[in-house]
Specification:
homotetramer; about 280 residues; alpha/beta; 8-stranded parallel beta barrel; two-stranded antiparallel ribbon; globular
C-alpha cells in the first residue's frame, strides 16, 4: 500500500480508482454534471443582494452556458463591520432564481445550525476559512448533498484531502474540491493560484477538482487567463463571479466579470474544454 | 484618526489606551493575572488522557509556578483517524484537577454546542483553525469568560485583531491574543514563531499577548529558548506543554517538556520576567 | 502617469506599448522567435553530461518541434558536494550540438568572468539564485545577446521587473522573463508555479514571458498539465527539461521528460498554442 | 552518523563540537570577540554617506558599547534608480572611521572584483541576495578574513548551512551566520524575524549566529524588543542600524535607531547578555 495515500481511506484513488462523477438535475430537465468527462461552470455574484439582481444574473449566466448558480447569503467576513450577507432572505432570493431559471444552486454554509435552511440548496459550499471546522465537516458528512470544499488560505494538499476525509467518514462521498488561491509573499494579486494542485489531486484522489479564479486573483482582468489555464491543467470545473454592476457590488466587485465578459469567456472555454477532451455544461 | 487602527473599534489602543488586565481567582485564593505588570504561565498537557495524568501534571506545574492549567478535551485534528480528545470526560478530569490544585483551567472549544459544557472552565481557547470561525466567535462574544484567541496558521496581524473584534462587538472584551507560529517554506521546525508581532500588537491594541512556543516549534528542545525570547520581546504570558511522559503522549509528545524540564525553565523565566519589569505568577 | 509602472522606465508597457519580439537565427536557416505571435519551446537536459547525450537530445527535441536547445554547463548547486556541471567542456559540447542541429542554444551564466566564454551562446540565462546579483546583471546590460531572466525563489513581480530594469539600463533590452515556481508552505511539489504572474507581467511590461514547468514542479508527471496551462495563461514560451535517460541524469532527473514524452506533449501544445492565437516554433 | 548533519562536513557540530570563536583586534587594543562566551554588537548606518557621518556615528556607537562598526559602501538595491552606495569612496570613509575609533569594520561585498579593495576591512559581509552567489562564496573561501553570511530572504536553514559550506570548503572556516528576517504573507513589518533558527543552528553547527533586527523588521520601534529577544534566544551577537539623523538617511532610515536610542538599548542588552551567561562587548 502506498504510504502517501493510505491515510485517505475514502478520498484516495487507491481504494476507488474511477473518477467520482456528481450528477444533479440541471436546467430544462437535463443533467448537470461535474467530474469524469464533464467540466461544469458555476457562476453568479459573490453575494445575493436582492431578488432582481440574483434572478437577472442567473438568467444571464444560464444563457452563457453556466450549469450552476452561485450566490452568497451567509458571508464569512474578516471584519465584523463589513456586509455579512443577507442571510435567510438571501437564501430565499437564490432559491427564487433557481425556480425561475432551473439552475441548481450552490451557496456557502458558515455554521451547523444553518443546515436546516439548506434543504433546497443543491450543493453546499464550505469556504476556505471553514475547511478545518471539523464539527461542521462532521455534520455535513451526515447529509445527502454534494459538498464543495474550498482549500484553506494556507492549507496543504494533504490537509485538503483529510478535510474531505472528515466529511466522507460520515457517509457523504460526493465532495468537490476547490482550489481558490493560497497565501504568499507577493501582492500583485490577492492570492497565488496553485494550478499544479489539480494534477496532483487527480493523481491521489478520485474526487472532482474545480478552480475559483475570481477569489484566487481578486482581479477580474486576470480571470479569463486563469480560467483557461485551469481547464488546460485538468480542472473539472470553474467557479466564476459574475455581477451585473461590479462597481456597485456589496462584496468583491473588483473580481467580478460583467455578464458580457462572462459570455465571451464561456465561448473560449468551450474550445479549451474540448481540447481537454471534456464536455462543457449540461449533459 | 489613524487609518490603521480605526477599523478596530474595540481592540484598538486608540480608544482604550490602558492595558487590558485579566484577573481571575487563582490557586490558594490568590488572584491569577495576565496583562499589565503580570506575566502568566499556562501549562499542561496537549490532551487530557486520564484523571491521574492531568491531576499529576497540574500539581507539578503549580509547584513550578504555573498560574493556569491547560489540557485539551475537544481536539481539532487534521485527520479524522487521529485521537480526537476525550471530550466531555476529559473536561471532567480537567475540572477535577482544578478542584485538587486550585489552578484555574483553560481548554479549547471547537463548536458552539459545547459552550454549555464550559461553565466551570475559566478561560475558553479558540484554536488556530477556528480563528475565523465567525459564528463561534460571535457566540463567545455573548458570554462572560475570558477568551484565549490563537492566531491562525497563516493569519495576518490585521485578521487576528479583527477576529478579536468579532468577539468584542458582542460585549465580551476580555480577550487574550496568542501567537503560536505561522506557516513558512522552511521545515526545520513545525512553524515559524513570529515574535515581532508582540511589540506590533502591543502598539496597536490594549489586549494582552501571549506566546505558545510548544506548538510554534513542535520541538521541546526549542521551547526554553523561545519562551525566554518571548518574554524578552514583551509577551504577557506563555502557554507551554508539559507531559509526565512525553514519549507516550497521545498527542504532540515531541513538543512537551517533562515536569522537571519545566521547573528548570520556570526558574530562568523568573529572571527574564523581572528584567522585563513584570511579575511572574500569582499576584 | 501610473505610479505602479513609472518605476520601470525601460520594462514598462507605458513607455513601450508594443510587445518585444526576440528573433534569432534558428535551425535550417529559419528565424527562431519568442514574443508577439510566437510561442517558443526551449528544451534539453538540466546538465550537459557528454557530447553524445547533448547531441542526441538536441536532435530529438528539434524533431519534436523545440526551437532552442538548453543545457547547463555551469550549475549553481545548493551543496558544494553536488555535481557542479562540466563547465567549459560542457559549453563546448553544447555548441557542438548547436552545430550539428542548427538549434540556437541557451545556457546559464553564474559569474561575470564567464561572459567571455559565452560568445557563441545565443541566449544567456540568469538563474533564480542570481536574479538579484546586480553586478552580473549590470555586465549583461552591456552585451548584445538576449538574456533569459528567471524569477527568484521568493521574488515579487516588482523585483523581477526591477531586475530586468537593472539589465536594461545598460542598453540591452532583449530580456525574456521566466516564471519557474516560488516557495510556499506546501510540499506536494518542489515549488508553487505562479501562472497568474503571466497576465500580470504582460499587462505591466512589453517583455516576453515564458514558464519553466520542470523546475517549478520538480516532477515530470506534472509537466504536461502545467505546460498546457502556461500556454493557456498567455505564456510566450516554455522551457522544458528533456533527458534521454531520466533515471540516470546527473541532475534533476526526476523532473525530466523522455524524448518520447516530450514529442507527445509538443503535439498537444501545438493545439493549445493555436487556440491562444499564436504560432509554435520556427517562423 | 546523523543523516541530518552529515551533509555539512565543515559547518556541522558533529565534526567540530566546540563553538567557533572569532577574535579580532578591537578598539583600544583589546580583543573584539564573537562566539562562545562573547556576544558582540555590530552597529552603524545602513550606508556610509560622508566622512563626518560615519566617523560621528562610529564614535557614538563605540561609546555605547558596540564592538564593530558597520557601514555599506557597495549597496545591492532592488531598483537601479535607488542610491547604490558611495562605492570605493565610502570604503575609504569607513576605514577612516576605523582609524579614528579603533573599531574593526564590517561592510558588504557585492562582486568578486571588489575583494582587492577589502584588504583593510575586518569582516566581509555577504548580503541576503548573494547568499547563493556561489562564485562569490568560493572566492571568499580562499581569503583569510571572517565572513558574515546573511540568510537569504527565503532560504531554509539547510541552504544557509550549505552556503557556509561553500565558503568553508575553500579553507576559510571563520563564518558568522546572520538571521535577518524571511518573507511571509504578513506585512505589518518588512519581514518575519525567525528567532527559532538560533537554537536550531546552534544545535547543528559550531558557527556563531547573530541577528539583524533592523533589516528584519524595517521599523526602528521594533528593534529594541527584537534585539533583547534575540539575545534571550541565544544569539552570539546583533547587527543594529544606527544613524545620526534617521529621517535624512539615504537608505533605510525608517529602521535606524538614533545614537541616543542605541545607547539606551545597549544598557538593557547588557543585562540580557549577563542573564544568557555571556559577556557583551570587548574581552
Amino acid at each position: 500500500m502506498n504510504p502517501d495515500t493510505s491515510q485517505y481511506k475514502h478520498a484516495s484513488r487507491e481504494f476507488h480508482p474511477a473518477d467520482t462523477v456528481i450528477e444533479l438535475l440541471g436546467a430544462d430537465g437535463k443533467p448537470a454534471v461535474i467530474g469524469g468527462d464533464y467540466c461544469a461552470v458555476i457562476a453568479g455574484p459573490c453575494s445575493v443582494e436582492n431578488r432582481e439582481q440574483i434572478t437577472g444574473i442567473a438568467a444571464a449566466v444560464k444563457k452563457a452556458g453556466a450549469v450552476f448558480l452561485r450566490g452568497g447569503a451567509f458571508k464569512p467576513r474578516t471584519s465584523p463591520y463589513s456586509f455579512q450577507g443577507m442571510g435567510k432572505e438571501g437564501l430565499e432570493y437564490l432559491l427564487y432564481a433557481k425556480k425561475e431559471t432551473g439552475l441548481p444552486v450552490i451557496t456557502e454554509i458558515t455554521e451547523i445550525s444553518q443546515i436546516v435552511l439548506f434543504n433546497n440548496v443543491d450543493i453546499i459550499q464550505v469556504g476556505a476559512r471553514n475547511m478545518q471546522n471539523f464539527a461542521l465537516l462532521k455534520e455535513l458528512g451526515r447529509i445527502h448533498k454534494p459538498i464543495l470544499l474550498k482549500r484553506g488560505h494556507a492549507s496543504t494538499m494533504t490537509e485538503l484531502l483529510l478535510a474531505a476525509e472528515h466529511i466522507m467518514t460520515g457517509g457523504n462521498d460526493r465532495i468537490i474540491l476547490c482550489e481558490r488561491g493560497i497565501r504568499s509573499f507577493d501582492n500583485y494579486a490577492r492570492n497565488i493560484l496553485d494550478l499544479a494542485i489539480i494534477p496532483a489531486l487527480k493523481q491521489k484522489s478520485h474526487l472532482p477538482v474545480i478552480v475559483d479564479p475570481s477569489h484566487a486573483t481578486g482581479l477580474s482582468r486576470m480571470v479569463p487567463a486563469m480560467a483557461k489555464a485551469a481547464i488546460a491543467a485538468g480542472a473539472d470545473g470553474l467557479m466564476i463571479e459574475v455581477h451585473n454592476d461590479p462597481h456597485k457590488a456589496l462584496c468583491d466587485g473588483e473580481q467580478s466579470l460583467t455578464p458580457e465578459a462572462f459570455a465571451i469567456l464561456m465561448d473560449s472555454l468551450q474550445k479549451y474544454t474540448e481540447l481537454a477532451g471534456k464536455k462543457l455544461g449540461i449533459k
